[in-house]
Amino acid sequence: MLEVLEQARLLVVTGKGGTGKTTVAAGLAVAAAGRGRRVLVAEVEGRQGLAGLFGRAALDHREARVAEGVHALAVDPDESLREYLARYGFAPLARLLSWAHLNRFITAAAPGLGDVLLVGKVWEAATREERPGSGAYDLVVLDAPPTGRVVPFLRAPETVAELARVGPIRNQADRVRDLLDDPGRTAVVLTCLPEELPVTETLEGVAALREAGLPVAGVVANQVTGDQLGGRAGRLAGLARDPGPLAGAAAAAGAELDRAALGTLVGEARDRQRQVTRERRLLKELRAGLDGLPLVELPSLADGAGGPDEVRALAGHLVAA
Ligand SMILES: Nc1ncnc2c1ncn2[C@@H]1O[C@H](COP(=O)(O)OP(=O)(O)OP(=O)(O)O)[C@@H](O)[C@H]1O
Ligand SMILES: [Mg+2]
User: Fold this and answer.
1) Residue with the nearest Cα to atom 25 of ligand 1?
2) Span 259-309, pLDDT tens digits
3) Which residues does a 6 A CB cutoff place in the pocket of ligand 1?
4) Which DSSP letter does residue 131 get?
């Protein structure tokens, strides 16, 4: 993970819905910034998922500094279209039509163009040269669409440009593909939960991304239950049957815990330990399926991962991993 954080120019974070793409993207951005890199973290689905993680109400198309060394951006399709048209000399056309009209027209004319604009914007940020007044970044972290949609999303420029063998659209598509296909510059990371379906979908996702020629760099297993008991877990079964020794210890410590309450506590500890065992088995399966691809584990944070403190904690784990 450190190698990716220090070397990639574009880090694409995908994964099954709800497995922590946005949280992990934020964590990776903060971790890379901690290694001295200038980072932009971008979301493309208009979900405003990143904002809260950096203690903001919302993000927009202006790149805003959200943490030490980290800027964030919510890529806006309309603004991307404006930039795109201006770049290719269509600004006069853009002025003639209302934005809503133009956007509808273009989207109907070329399905997938919306994605072309979003990917194009990410590519622009990742390959931006230092210009006065505009920050260049060492790394762009993309909070990407989920595994099921990420390949068509990243390949949208290519798909649309199939119609154009020459010209600016073809040219940009080629440069986007050059960046995306280059394992020296691009790294795709998948997020996963230690659960049955996400593990299966992650392995399928890795295969689909590789099939499409995209450089998969690793998997982050998120929300892994901590094993606090380890080898001592074997004592739980005995204590669940007979919490007598515990009751004695509790009474000696002045705690008012009767046998029923202690039985409940031990039962919960045992459930948690069963969960740990289940997760270890699934992660073992995942690791075997990944066939040498790096797998990094992130702990499940007790109070969720809703803000900057949790993002910093996860960033610390990513660097240590
Ligand atoms: N390591 C963690 N510990 C505790 N809670 C976490 C952790 N990682 C993510 N979460 C929580 O899990 C939920 C899903 O995370 P997140 O929004 O990052 O997933 P996502 O893959 O981006 O989801 P979506 O597919 O909806 O975009 C959030 O409520 C988040 O706070
Ligand atoms: Mg998300």
Assistant:
1) 17
2) 888 888 888 889 999 999 999 999 999 999 999 999 999 999 999 989 999
3) 15, 17-23, 47, 49, 146, 222-223, 298, 300-301, 304-306, 314
4) B
